Amino acid sequence: MGERDDRWGGGARDGRSGGYDDRFRDGGGVNGPPRNNRWVEDERDRSAGGSGGGGGRWQDRVGDRDDWTQPLPRNEVLEAELFATSSTGGPAVQSNSGINFDKYDDIPVEATGDEAPASINTFADIKLTELVRMNIALARYDRPTPVQKYAIPFILGKRDLMACAQTGSGKTAAFLVPILNQIYEQGPVQIKNNNPRGRSKQYPLALVLAPTRELATQIYDESRKFSYRARVRPCVVYGGADVVAQMRDLSRGCHLLVATPGRLADMIDRGKIGLDCCKYLVLDEADRMLDMGFEPQIRRIVEEDNMPPTGQRQTLMFSATFPKEIQRLAQDFLDNYIFLAVGRVGSTSENITQKIVWVGEEDKRSFLLDILNAAGLDRPNDATKAESLTLVFVETKKGADALEEFLYRHGYPVTSIHGDRSQREREDALRVFRSGQCPILVATAVAARGLDIPHVKHVINFDLPSDIEEYVHRIGRTGRMGNLGLATSFFNDKNRNMVRDLVELLQEAKQELPKWLEVIASETRWGGGGGGGRGRSGGGGKRFGGGFGSRDYRQV
């Protein structure tokens, strides 16, 4: 069902960038601009200079050739908001300092393609603008992650990229750092005059497409960090929020746009966005966007809306899996690209202990209570809860509501998210989960897709998914950045359809294989049915071959 943007109600802060108290700075009232409210007409904007691709009042300054590589004056309030780590519910910095590099550096990386640029070992190994270096330091990115070591020099080398990397691998910074660095170096571009009546049309220089509003806002939050003290203004638009507020925010200028496909298509139809100047296109979680039915909108955006054609723009595609549909998109959208596969941080990682337990439907709730009690989550006021979050997956929205109510009645600190919750409810749930106030989150897979939540120590598949790829995505929520994690899945007769894929995955990841599961897999094999679920092998050959999320199908 449709969802309204409730985040501006109430009066309590949601712990995210741009608190509710700031909503009145631009006269936005209760329908103030989503997330962008700190970028208002104040001293920061008046000193911003430059234009190019921004549109709106930024367009009035085309021809002002300020050096975009030089930082604007420091704003201590905004700096604290963007980069300070909070222990009381605010967002923690997505820094690389929490990574277990001793193990993370062992993750295999495969890069194929003609004349691929050399990888880096430190951020000092590559030429970056003063602005980017400053914000990397503020964000406490001490060392590049594996995907950053390869993707950043590839993108700075102006190469198209098809990358297999999951949320939590550092991929957001892997594309934002080089894209923004190039925008700073190139400065503003001359664009056509806007409507003189003031109904401005924005011409972003970079476009990032994401499948869900949660992932879109996470990318936007990171873009704010790397554009701090810059003349570049990021914006975000997504469905389920007030479109008028988003249009009002866009009218202030937009150089980098993060968007969900449906809402972007709507903004294009309304004449609020033009893609004529788009030099950089990112498709993040491309497989999920296709699963959600966004391929027509994506193709229309890329092929029919005045976006520069393949070869005249730089296109980056990130996906956890590469089925044939994704490979077709790559053929159509990418030019002489580099294929980058970071060993699957999750599904095949030995940092995640995967446990499969036989639990009948009628016993699931009592078994879950036993697990939570063993983890100490029944104890109130445990100071370690924020460091040991538990994520419980269920298949349906009704099931999420019912399980949350059950746990709440039994005294557990629990919250939940699913697609029928309002935007405000979803953000509140994520805030109290991240902070450890409610260290148990019950979620449907669609609602949780793309969320980057640190410190998830335990993923519980209360309901197993119907295909192995969704299982891969779910357990990848823990054991991130080389840290240890646990994934427990409840299995019974309802899950026989995926048993063979599950056994193959467990064997590949060197996990303990229960004898009873081997027996069921053998029975299914000789019975000739039920194997495989909806899993897709994509590039041909073994589904999980080589420990990588996929293979470069050009070499198959």
UniProtKB/TrEMBL annotation:
PROSITE patterns, A to Z: DEAD_ATP_HELICASE (PS00039), HELICASE_ATP_BIND_1 (PS51192), HELICASE_CTER (PS51194)
Segments of skewed composition (Basic and acidic residues): 1-26, 38-47, 58-68
The keyword Iron belongs to this UniProt entry's keyword annotation: no
Keywords: ATP-binding, Helicase, Hydrolase, Nucleotide-binding, RNA-binding
Keyword ATP-binding: yes
Region entry Disordered, spans: 1-70, 527-556
Origin superkingdom: Eukaryota
GO molecular-function terms, A-Z: ATP binding; hydrolase activity; RNA binding; RNA helicase activity
Biased composition (Gly residues): 527-549
EC number from the UniProt entry: 3.6.4.13
Ranges of residues in domain Helicase ATP-binding: 152-340
Helicase C-terminal domain location: 351-521
Reaction it catalyzes: ATP + H2O = ADP + phosphate + H(+)
CDD domains named among the record's database cross-references: DEADc_DDX3 (cd18051), SF2_C_DEAD (cd18787)
Pfam families membership: DEAD, Helicase_C
Family that this chain belongs to: Belongs to the DEAD box helicase family. DDX3/DED1 subfamily.
Protein's UniProt name: RNA helicase
Organism: Eriocheir sinensis
Lineage: Eukaryota, Metazoa, Ecdysozoa, Arthropoda, Crustacea
